[in-house]
Design brief:
25% of the residues lie in helices and 20% in strands. By secondary structure, the chain is an alpha+beta fold. It has 3 domains: 21-228, Dipeptide-binding Protein, Domain 1 (Dipeptide-binding Protein, domain 1), CATH 3.90.76; 281-327 and 559-623, no CATH class; 334-553, Dipeptide-binding Protein, Domain 3 (Dipeptide-binding Protein, domain 3, Roll), CATH 3.10.105.10. A 5-stranded mixed beta sheet has the order 21-20-22-15-23, with helices on both faces. A 4-stranded mixed beta sheet has the order 3-12-11-10, with no helix packed on it. It has a 4-stranded antiparallel beta sheet with strand order 6-7-9-8. It is globular and about 70 Å long.
Length: 624
C-alpha cells in the first residue's frame, strides 16, 4: 500500500545535480512533420539568446534490470476511495494523489542513485545568465496518452491554468505567480521557464522550474471546472493511464503499449506490468488476509506488528512469500502531531508546549514500535546541511508540562483527573486517518492524561480525514507529509499567506511576521551558505512555536512479496521509498510463468528456500 503522501508537488524533485554532459543541441534541422494540438494558439515566437550552452545527460548508469519482463496485473490496495481524479483543486491532495500524479512526467527526471538530472519530456537544458531562467529543448517524440504531441503550447497553458481562479487552488495560484513568473515559447519544441528569484543552479533546475505540462486541448477553464473535471481522466505523459473505474470498489491503470518513452535510455525495462488494479480495502488487517490468499501481490511491512508478528505461517515457511528490509537514503517524511493554532485553546503557546512535554514518544517507540523507528527531530530531516542538527525534540517531562499549564492558569482538576479552568476541560480532539495507528496513539493519550490533558482519539476514513484537515476544521492531527528535494520547503507550511484559509498546507495556521520575513528571504537567497543558515533559523522557529511535535522516522522500507513478483537484481535504489511501486521507479515485474508454477507447487505441497532479504547497501554509504 502506498504511504499517505500529502505534500503538494509541482515537479520530480531530486537530490543533486552533479556533472552533466555538455553538448550543443542540433540546430538547423527540420522540425518533425507531426500534427500539432488543434487547440494550440497562434503566438508570436521569441528569439533565443545566442550565448546558451545546452546540456544533457546520457552518461549516468542505467538503473533498470535488463531481465525485466512485460505483462501481468499488479494488485494493490487503498483504504478509501478518492474524492476526485483531479490533482489540483479541492480534495485533490489525498492519499490517492500519488497514483494520479504518477501518470505525468516533468521536464526532467532524476537518477535515483547519483542524483543527476536526466532527460524526460525535455532532452536538453541551458541556463540563462540571470540565474532565474532555464531553457529547455522538448522531446519531439513525447505524446499525451491520447496520441497528441506535447508541445510548447502545453507549457504556456500551464501558467494560465495554474493562475486561474477556476481551479480553486490558492497555493498553486500563488506559486505560479511569484515563484514561476514566466514561461516563453521559442518554437514548438523550445521553451524557457523563469523563476521568481535566482537560486543555486541545481536547486533552480530541479526544484524551481522542473514543471509538468497541462494539456491545453483537454481543459476548458470556467466557473464549472472543478465539478466538470472531478472524474475526467486527464491525458498523461507517463507509461500508465487510468482505465476502468468502479466507484467505491477499484481503479485500474493500463500501461500504454505504444508509450513514446518505452525505449529511451532511462525508461527502458521499467513500468513492466500491463495493468495495475487498486482495490479499496478499508481495513488494513482485512487487506493482509487478501495478501495471504494471493489476492494482493505485495504488502508493506514497515509497521512493526506486521514485520515481527504477522509475516509468519506456512506461506512464508514454505518459501512462497519472501520478506525484504531495504535501507534507503532519502529525506524523511514530516511525521508529526500538528496543532491548529486557530483553535482557541491552542493559541496559547504554553498549552502547545505543555502538550509536547506530555507526549511520551519514547514509550511508543520501545513498546508499540519495537524500537524499529527513531524519533524525528524536527520538520525537515535528511536534507544534508539544510537539516538543523542542533535541534533536540522535547522529551516526555511531566514537571515541565505541569509548570507550563499552571502558568496558563490550568491548576484545578475534575473527577477524571483532567484539568479545568472556568468550567472548561483541557480536552482536545486528536484526529487521524489510519486505524492501524490507534495503538500508538492510545499510548500517547494515556500518558498525556498524567499531565491532566485529555486527548479524544478520532479515526476517520483517510479521504474524509484529509479533506477536513485542508479545510482547517481540525484541532490536533497525527499526519505525515511526504518529503523530497534538494532543500526543505517552508512557504506552503508556515507562511501567513497560506494561513486561515482552506486548501493550503499551512494546517497549523502559522501566522508570524518574523517567520514570513525569514521564509521570504530563504526563497530568494542565492548564496547556499546563507540559505542554509536561514533554513536553520526557520526550523528553530518551528520548534520554538510548538505548533508541530515531530514523532518518528524510518530509514528503510520493508515489504512481503509473492514469489512471482521479481525485484531487480539490486532490489532497489538509494531513493526507493517503496520497492514495489509500479508507477514510480517501476523496477520490478510479474513473472506469469513463475506464478503458474508456484500455484501448482502450492497445491502439491512442494516447498522452496525461506528468503528474508536484508539489504544495507545504501545504509553503509550513508554511514560511511
Amino acid at each position: 500500500m502506498k504511504k499517505l503522501v500529502a505534500l503538494i508537488l509541482i515537479a520530480f524533485f531530486i537530490s543533486g545535480c552533479g556533472d552533466t554532459q555538455k553538448a550543443e543541441y542540433p540546430t538547423g534541422e527540420a522540425e518533425p512533420a507531426i500534427m500539432l494540438n488543434p487547440a494550440s494558439p497562434s503566438e508570436p515566437l521569441s528569439e533565443l539568446p545566442a550565448h546558451l550552452v545546452w546540456m544533457t545527460n546520457n552518461d549516468d548508469p542505467v538503473f533498470s534490470d535488463p531481465s525485466a519482463l512485460k505483462g501481468g496485473t499488479f494488485r494493490d490496495f487503498i483504504t478509501s476511495f478518492p474524492l476526485t481524479l483531479r490533482y489540483v483543486g479541492p480534495d485533490s491532495n489525498g492519499s490517492f494523489a500519488g497514483y494520479v500524479r504518477a501518470t505525468q512526467l516533468s521536464l526532467l527526471d532524476m537518477h535515483p542513485n547519483t542524483g543527476n538530472p536526466l532527460p524526460s519530456l525535455a532532452t536538453h537544458w541551458a541556463f540563462d545568465e540571470d540565474g532565474k531562467t532555464v531553457y529547455f529543448k522538448l522531446d519531439p517524440d513525447a505524446r499525451w496518452s491520447d496520441g497528441l504531441p506535447v508541445t510548447a503550447d502545453d507549457y504556456t497553458f500551464t501558467l494560465e491554468f495554474m493562475r486561474s481562479k477556476f481551479i480553486v487552488a490558492p497555493w498553486y495560484n500563488e506559486h505560479f505567480t511569484t515563484q514561476i513568473t514566466d514561461i516563453k515559447k521559442y518554437d514548438n519544441y523550445t521553451i524557457s521557464v523563469t523563476a521568481g528569484s535566482a537560486k543555486p543552479r541545481d536547486e533552480l533546475l530541479l526544484e524551481g522550474v522542473n514543471l509538468r505540462p497541462i494539456p491545453r486541448h483537454f481543459h476548458k477553464l470556467d466557473e464549472n471546472w472543478v465539478r466538470n473535471y472531478n472524474w475526467k481522466v486527464e491525458p498523461g505523459t507517463a507509461a500508465y493511464t487510468i482505465g476502468e473505474i468502479r466507484k467505491g470498489k477499484y481503479i485500474e491503470f493500463l500501461r500504454l503499449d505504444n508509450w513514446w518513452a518505452r525505449d529511451k535510455r532511462y525508461y527502458k525495462n521499467r513500468f513492466n506490468v500491463d495493468k495495475i488494479k487498486v482495490k479499496v480495502i478499508r481495513d488494513i488487517n482485512i487487506a493482509w488476509k487478501h495478501f495471504l490468499k494471493g489476492d494482493l501481490d505485495t504488502f508493506g511491512l514497515v509497521l512493526p506488528s506486521f514485520w515481527h508478528d504477522k509475516a509468519k505461517g506456512k506461506n512464508f515457511e514454505r518459501g512462497y512469500i519472501h520478506k525484504i528490509k531495504f535501507y534507503n537514503d532519502v529525506p524523511q517524511p514530516a511525521q508529526g502531531i500538528w496543532m491548529n493554532m486557530d483553535y482557541p485553546l491552542l493559541k496559547d503557546k504554553n498549552i502547545r508546549e505543555a502538550i509536547a512535554y506530555a507526549m511520551n514518544f519514547d514509550k511508543v517507540l520501545t513498546t508499540v514500535l519495537r524500537n524499529d523507528y527513531e524519533r524525528m527531530e524536527t520538520h525537515n530531516v535528511g536534507y544534508g546541511d539544510y537539516t538543523n542538527t542542533a535541534i533536540t525534540p522535547r522529551a516526555f517531562d511531566l514537571k515541565k508540562s505541569d509548570s507550563l499549564l499552571k502558568a496558563a492558569g490550568w491548576i484545578d482538576y475534575d473527577s477524571d483527573g483532567i484539568r479545568i479552568k472556568n468550567g472548561q476541560r483541557l480536552s482536545f480532539e486528536l484526529s487521524y486517518g489510519s486505524a492501524h495507528h490507534t495503538e500508538r496513539l492510545v499510548v500517547l493519550k494515556e500518558e498525556a492524561k498524567k499531565a491532566g490533558i485529555e486527548l479524544v482519539l478520532k479515526v476517520q476514513d483517510s479521504s474524509a480525514f484529509f479533506k477536513g484537515v485542508l479545510e482547517k476544521k481540525h484541532q490536533i492531527v497525527s499526519l505525515g507529509w511526504g518529503g523530497g528535494g534538494l532543500s526543505p520547503s517552508y512557504y506552503q507550511f508556515y507562511h501567513s499567506d497560506n494561513s486561515h484559509k482552506p486548501q493550503t498546507n499551512n494546517i497549523t495556521n502559522f501566522d508570524d511576521p518574523e517567520m514570513d520575513a525569514l521564509i521570504d528571504a530563504y526563497r530568494v537567497e542565492l548564496d547556499k551558505k546563507n540559505r542554509i543558515e536561514l533554513a536553520h533559523q526557520i526550523e528553530q522557529k518551528i520548534y520554538d512555536s510548538a505548533a508541530l511535535i515531530p514523532t518518528w522516522k524510518v530509514p528503510y522500507t520493508r515489504a512481503a512479496f509473492w514469489g512471482w513478483v521479481n525485484p531487480p537484481a539490486f532490489y532497489g535504489t538509494k531513493s526507493s521509498q517503496v520497492l514495489f511501486d509500479p508507477m514510480g521507479e517501476g523496477l520490478f515485474w510479474i513473472d506469469k510463468d513463475k506464478k503458474d508454477s508456484l500455484r501448482k507447487a502450492m497445491r502439491s505441497g512442494k516447498t522452496f528456500p525461506v528468503e528474508t532479504i536484508i539489504d544495507e547497501t545504501w545504509r553503509k554509504k550513508r554511514d560511511g
